[in-house]
Amino acid sequence: MHPMLNTAVKAARRAGSIINRASLDLERLPVTRKGPRDLVTEVDRAAENAIIEILHSAYPDHAVLAEESGEHGSTGPDAEYQWIIDPLDGTTNFVHGFPDYAVSIALAQRGVITQAVVFDPTRNELFTATRGAGAFLNDRRIRVSPRRRLSEALVGASFRSSDDQELRRWAHIFSEMSLACAGTRRIGSAVLDLAWLAAGRLDACYGAGLKPWDLAAGSLLVLEAGGLIGDFEGEQTWFEHGNVVASAPKLFPAMLVQLESMRGKSSAPPQSA
């Protein structure tokens, strides 16, 4: 295992231990809001601090972009090394005791993701990838599914917005996608959507309004597992703009066509009186 990946694994497991301990006593956990549908807990912050402490101990000159505490050091595409961290993706799930959430850590070198860790602490599943060396789940190599037809595909979705009208629009698209494929899942963790796609559990996924820490580690897992990733036009602006499509290669064109069609004709359903 690459030394930097090994350090990220150590950090992810430390964060996972903090999360698992807290999950045993959720009733006492203070919860605050960053937005109408965006929760944060002391666990998010404690897990993030633990990750940063381990990374900075090993690599004090590396920059960090973290969901809760923001930027540390010189970040951006010109940074030599930048860690991109989501300490607990799926906080709403976590505070409800719904066991679908994960720790996400990625390393970018001059804007290119080179190392990735996604750790699911409830299942003790560790997803890892090094650019050019493949993707793994608990040391077992993983590949995206061989699915070819959208009508047979299981598709994940993750969309975020503080605007109610925009959420209604995406909820309508979600229902339309359900008719076009074998099934749709909105599990509440974009990080797990991408990791499960890499492992062949999902055949495709799409997301809107996502942040770099939602996408960084999972994107490398998908690519190293043989999948494709792009924006809604199939281009490579997804990391900057947060609109993303990822899938097994044979499904990628069909996903783009389907999303373009649904977005073009989508309108929010009428509100009830």
Summarize the model shown:
The chain has 273 residues and is α+β, with helices and mostly antiparallel strands. The protein has helices spanning 3-23, 42-58, 91-95, 164-180, 190-198, 212-224, 238-241, 252-265, and strands at residues 31-35, 38-41, 63-66, 70-72, 81-89, 102-109, 112-120, 125-130, 135-137, 140-141, 154-159, 183-185, 204-208, 228-230, 244-247.
Description:
It contains 8 helices and 15 strands. 37% of the residues lie in helices and 27% in strands. The chain is globular. The protein starts with a helix and ends in an 8-residue tail after the last helix. It folds into 2 domains: 3-141, Fructose-1,6-Bisphosphatase, Chain A, domain 1; 150-264, D-Maltodextrin-Binding Protein, domain 2, CATH 3.40.190.80. The longest helix is centred in the first third of the chain and has 21 residues, at 3-23. It has 273 residues and is an alpha+beta fold. Helix 4 links the parallel strand 11 (154-159) and strand 12. It has helices spanning 3-23, 42-58, 91-95, 164-180, 190-198, 212-224, 238-241, 252-265; strands spanning 31-35, 38-41, 63-66, 70-72, 81-89, 102-109, 112-120, 125-130, 135-137, 140-141, 154-159, 183-185, 204-208, 228-230, 244-247. The strands form 3 sheets. It has an 8-stranded mixed beta sheet with strand order 4-3-5-6-7-8-9-10, sandwiched between helices. It has a 5-stranded mixed beta sheet with strand order 12-11-13-15-14, with helices on both faces. The chain has a two-stranded antiparallel sheet with strand order 1-2.
